Each structure stands twice: as structure tokens, then as C-alpha cells.
Amino acid sequence: MVDGAFIVYFKLFKNKTPTLNEYLQMCGVKDIERYLNPKDCRESPYHYVNMQEAVSYLYNAIHDAKNYNEHIYIIQGPDVDGLCSSYIAYKFLLDNDVPRNTIKMLVHTTKSHNLDDEIMAQINDDCKYLIIPDAGSNDMEQLWELSNRGIYILIADHHKIEYNLNDYPPNVVLVNSTIQELENPYLSGTGVMWKIIEGFYIDGSDESYLPYVALANLSDVMNISSLENRWLNKLMEVETEVLGADYNICMSGLNKNLNDNGYLTPTNVTWNITPKLNACIRNGDINVRRMLFGILNAKNIDFIDQTIPTLKSIHREQQEYVKEMFGNIVKDIDATNNIIVGFVDNTAYTGLVANKVCWDYNKPTFLLYEKYGEYYGSCRSPVPLKDKCIESGLFTFASGHDSSFGVALPKEN
Description:
Elements (H helix, E strand, L loop, with lengths): L4 H9 L6 H7 L5 H5 L14 H18 L2 E6 L3 H16 L7 E5 L9 H4 L6 E7 L6 H9 L3 E6 L14 E5 L12 H12 L9 H10 L7 H8 L14 H10 L7 H18 L2 H11 L4 H30 L9 E4 L6 H12 L3 E7 L2 E7 L5 H7 L4 E4 L3 E7 L3
Parallel strand pairs: 1-2, 1-3, 3-4, 4-5, 6-7
Antiparallel strand pairs: 7-8, 8-10, 9-10
């Protein structure tokens, strides 16, 4: 639940099993009764820095799209959090009667979360407003370039920023869960996008956004020691007979087809639904990504039923490829080192294999491939390591989460 919790567990309880209360206290939970039975625990969106500016941004974007046909671009990130956060931004615009032909979705075909060359090339001169959920906070050079083109940018992110707030261009509104003290600093990128939507509606948004926030939180393995995240996860504890159009068509359809026991639970989402969605995202096929977006936006379960064979087939192919890739890597691993470094081909599965190596050996793992004369790749670590990589000065960049991030470094390092 919390970094270090299991270390404390073994130190304090190696000879006995802790009670549930003891374990929750160890993980930092203060109000255990409320934690076990959470009601609506949402934190005010106005605890976030720049929330009023973000709300004004949305008002202006909606007004200009409806009255002057100005275009709003949304960037869809390459994981479930990126998928869900871009979807609720899209859904919000449609809910406020923004014409579909003024909305354009930009999609990564690689695992990059950044404003990379692929995405920058898709941002045309008709873009007036650009919404970047679950990314963008550290793409300073690109943000200035887009701002100088007269584009207004909204960032809804949960990755640590590497700059001061006054470094950002005036055209950028940054809402980020890491730049202020919050009751719940552990929301996913989708959660931060939802907060902005909540801020827009005086009485709070309707409940239709919540399943996507919960799905993204679970898929991004967000810390659940906060009451708000615990409450959101509880939304995924639904018995079969409750599921249906009155709950959420997307989750009902995925649960029906991918959960053997029929119950929608956080565990089933994490182990049965998220891996299939992530496999399709890693596939890199734009048509498959459109299919996934269609699942989130489904109007009936029959549509989802038709997509399931594709989801399962792509997931099986991924499992076979990862198994082969893992087998090739472990033959050359020196497990006596404190940190594991392996060299692989450039594929969409580098992070997935690094995660498996890290899990099996319980050591920080770097899997690298050659690109542009440097080494690029992924790190997965049982302890926070990103900041140490940045501080070392050895890396061109280390970007992502504390224990799960992408890297680049000169070969000589």
C-alpha cells in the first residue's frame, strides 16, 4: 500500500500475522473505521493550485469551440491512465455540447508519454486549445514552442515536476497533484483531470466519470492509504446483479467478458481487465487504440462483446513475446550485482519485462536499447530511484514515477 510498508511488516511482525488494524496503522491510515467503510470522500478541487485558472480555461475553450469553431486537441497517453484521462476530457467536452468536429485526439504509437516528435508533428495550425492529461509537466521546451505558436495549454498531471512554477509559459495552466499539500496526493492523471471537471461544475460533476477514475487509479497502482482513493476503489466492488447500464456500460461489458467469477472487484480489475487493455495499448496499432476508446465510450454491451476476442488475442501474443524476451535476458543476468542492467531490442514491452525481472530478483532493473547513439530504456525498482538517477548526472533524462520510469544516458555512462 505504501512504499516501505512491507519492510516495516517484516521487522515488526516476522513472528506473527498483524491484525488488520495493526497493518492499516502501519500503512499510515489514521481513521480506520472510516477507511474500512468510506462514503463520499472526495477532496475539494480548489485545494489544487491553478484550479480557478483551469476552470476559466475550460469555459473559454468551450465558448470558442461552440461560437467560433476553434479546435481543441487532446493527447492520449500510452497506458490505461492516459486512455481514461483523455476519454473523460473528451466526454466532458461532449457533455457541454462542444461540436465533435472541433475535437481532435492525438495518439502515441509508442510508450512515450511526452510531447515527442510524433505528437508535435500532429499539432496543426488549427489547434487553439491543447489538453494534456497524465503528462506534459516536464516538456518545457515543447511547451514554450507551442505557446509561442499561440496555443493555450491545460496540463492535468500527477508526475513530479522538475521546474519552478514561474518557468512555465503564460499560455500554460498547470494542475498537478505534486505541487501543493493535499489530503490525497496520490490520484492518477485521470483523477487530476476529474478534479478539474469537478471544479468546473459548481455542484460537482455527475457520477459518470468516477468508474474511469477508479479504473485508472487501479491500473496505475496508485497508493490507497488516502480516504479518497480508498473510496474510489470501493466503487469497483459491485456484485453482478448491480452491474448494467445503470452502473457503467464500459465496466459492465469488460467485467462480463473478462472476470470468471462475475464480480467486479479491485482485484479483478487489476489482474483481469487492466492487463488486456495495456496489451492492446502496447500493440501500437492506431485502429486497436480507436477500438479501446470505443470501449470506454460504448453505448451498449454488444459492442464490447465484439471486441473481446481481439483483446484476448493481443494479450496472448504479448504474454508469449514477454516470456521469450524474459528468457533471453535472464541467461545473461549477473544476479550478484545490486542493480541489474540488461540490453534488449527496442520494443513496446521493455518496461513490462523490466518489471518481471525486478519482481523475480527484487533488485532495481534497467533494460536498455541503443537509439540515437545513446542508451534508452526502462527502469523498474523495488525502492524509489528516479530522483537518485537525476541527481547522479549520468542520465540525459529519467522521467516517470519514482520506481517506474523511462531513462536515457550516454553510452560512456
